[in-house]
Amino acid sequence: MLASFVEHGFTVAHAALARIAGNGDGAKEAPQLKANKSIPTDPSPAASIATATMTSKRVVCSMTVASKETISRDTICIRLTFKEGEGMIIPVGKHVKISCPNPALEATQWNGKVDSETGEATIERKYTPVESDMTGFTLIVKVYPCCPQFPDGGKMSQYLNSLTTGQALDVELPFGLIQYFGNGLFKRSKNEVKATEVAIIVGGSGVTPMFRLVDEALRVESDATKFSVIDANRDEDHIIYKDRIDALVTAHPNRLRLTHILSNPSEAWTGKKGYVDKETIMASLPRPSDHTLVLICGPPPMMSAVITQLEELGYDPKRVWEF
Ligand SMILES: Cc1cc2nc3c(=O)[nH]c(=O)nc-3n(C[C@H](O)[C@H](O)[C@H](O)COP(=O)(O)OP(=O)(O)OC[C@H]3O[C@@H](n4cnc5c(N)ncnc54)[C@H](O)[C@@H]3O)c2cc1C
Questions:
Q1: What span, in angstroms and rounded, lies between the C-alpha atoms of 323 and 199?
Q2: Closest alpha carbon to 92 in 187, 179, 211, 5
Q3: How far is the CA of 92 from the centre of ligand 1 (A)?
Q4: What distances in angstroms separate CA 31 from CA 20, 21, 96, 244, one per listed residue?
């Protein structure tokens, strides 16, 4: 099924996007993308944000690995492309779901523990693109290799690391409740927030939704929204996408403030040390206000600690959103 949605005189998208995901009852209509005069035809960052007006019906696509490279220790960058004639820009704030064969199909244990996925033919994990255009998107994935503490490692991340150029991958998209529409306008389900200051706390691979949001927003000169980010990691080697994030600060010093904090840095580290605490939040992020939105994403222990700290510092829980 190949459909071209042309309304109001310009093409919105080509969408031969496989079957619509949901109740698994086979092929259905291709997703309808709402035609909107504000949707430009070019896949620039501004267009990406505008294209967020697409309906959020999910689709399942067979995508192709266009490239895969190791970008730092245990971190890979994978570019996935749509088939010819298919395409969708993943709205800023949203993520995708990838399926792969279950490597532990018949194993009763994984990493020494009872495995809840035993017997399932496929497993699914979610990933947030750091870049997206009509031809495909890019993922940054932290790979969990086998090690003494985790003898089997991570299922999906090792599978993704094993892929080579040209291989196919099943992807369902888009997922997520949060979406950025540009100029400080965020939506979570039906809840709408306008923010001039966005405070972000991320840890580990939680950096990916932050990067996509900040990167896209900063490219739009007319978007005056300011971002303050705390990026928490174990040590220098574990800071995912550090070069790209630091480059954003260099390019946009008036709109992006960044604090790296490491819990176990090398002796050479001159930045902040320890875990995210109230002192770090007060020193690095804007004060609570009705024009500030806080976005957080990271491992569960960090998230619960940070939520408590933010509440104690007076941030309105309604303006603290988990990516
Ligand atoms: C909305 C959303 C977006 C996400 N976006 C991204 C993203 O953009 N990039 C990304 O990398 N991840 C992302 N994740 C996490 C991702 O979905 C997976 O949880 C992650 O890749 C691990 O999956 P796995 O199958 O490899 O590990 P599993 O097999 O599920 O292993 C479970 C856990 O065991 C632990 N573990 C296993 N081996 C090791 C090891 N060697 N060292 C330390 N711990 C280990 C890890 O805590 C791991 O998460 C996202 C998650 C969500 C919910």
A1: 12
A2: 179
A3: 21
A4: 7, 10, 16, 34
* Alpha carbons 160 and 171: distance in angstroms, whole number: 12
What's the gap in Å between 154 CA and the centre of ligand 1?
Answer: 7
Q: Categorize the per-residue pLDDT at 43 as very low, low, confident or very high, splitting at 50, 70 and 90.
A: very low
**Can you give the residue ranges of every domain in the chain?**
4-175, 178-322
Look up the pTM and report it.
0.86
The pocket around ligand 1, CB under 6 angstroms, is made up of 95, 111, 125-128, 139-142, 144-145, 147, 150, 153-157, 205, 208
Give residues with Cβ within 8 angstroms of 62, minimum separation 6: 18, 83, 168, 169, 170, 171
Instruction: Assign domain 178-322 to its CATH architecture.
Output: 3-Layer(aba) Sandwich (3.40)
Q: pLDDT tens digits, residue range 56-78?
A: 578 999 999 999 999 988 999 99
Q: Which residue has the tokens 């949707």?
A: 39
4-175 adopts what CATH topology?
Elongation Factor Tu (Ef-tu); domain 3 (2.40.30)
